[in-house]
Write a structure and sequence with these properties.
mainly alpha
Length: about 230
């Protein structure tokens, strides 16, 4: 009885260490696979909504700020500056939404036509019908959404345009107002440049500098040309 009891005790103790070792052996493999899946993520899949969102915000920020700076070059009235910015926000958001909708819808038509041609060829060449049906369903899920892209563009443009509007709304003094708009736009350009680079896994410094310099140039050119035309008496 004693040997059997000893064997029974040993038999009860041995499986647990064995299972624990197996778990420990498989755990690093699972973590490694998870890490590889993250490394293999295709960031180009984000291009549609990333382009519509980040570029829309940049357009709203730069175009509205440039309009306000241009009007501010010849008019010191805060009301004229705010109304100009608001008109730019509404017009720009509508323009971005319509343009994005038309562009993405054209892309959708092209991809749907190509998908139909490919599916017809697959049905003629492949006897397995259900596989073709599954592939067609997956392709439809990956098609671009025009309404989503249009809404993202309009919303992003409005968010960007609100930055210079809010910066100028509460400052009555002329020079301080122009400085506040320029400072707020500079900060927002840096944030948008960093955000676009971070989401797309692109070089952060290069992207930020490119967006920042482009915004400065747009505001400076608009301000300078408007000031020149306003001073000439045209």
């Amino acid at each position: 009885m004693a040997p059997n009891s000893q064997a029974s005790v040993n038999g009860d103790k041995n499986p647990n260490p064995t299972m624990t070792n197996l778990d420990l052996e498989h755990q690093p493999t699972q973590d490694l696979n998870t890490s590889n899946d993250n490394d293999d993520f295709d960031y180009s899949k984000r291009s549609q909504w990333l382009r519509a969102a980040v570029l829309g915000a940049n357009d709203g920020l730069i175009s509205t700020a440039s309009l306000m700076m241009g009007v501010g070059a010849v008019k010191q009235d805060i009301k004229a500056m705010i109304l100009t910015g608001f008109a730019g926000l509404v017009a720009g958001a509508c323009s971005m939404a319509i343009g994005e909708f038309v562009s993405v819808y054209s892309q959708l038509d092209i991809e749907v036509a190509q998908m139909k041609r490919d599916n017809n060829n697959n049905k003629q060449n492949s006897p397995v019908v259900h596989v073709v049906g599954d592939e067609e369903g997956e392709e439809k899920e990956n098609l671009p959404n025009p309404l989503q892209a249009a809404a993202a563009s309009a919303l992003a443009f409005s968010v960007g345009a609100m930055v210079p509007l809010l910066a100028a709304s509460f400052i009555r003094e002329y020079r301080a107002r122009l400085g506040a708009v320029a400072a707020a736009v500079t900060l927002a350009l840096m944030v948008f440049g960093w955000l676009g680079a971070a989401l797309g896994k692109a070089p952060v410094l290069r992207s930020t500098i490119r967006v920042l310099v482009g915004g400065w140039m747009a505001m400076a050119i608009t301000f300078g040309l408007t000031k020149l035309i306003g001073s000439s008496g045209l």
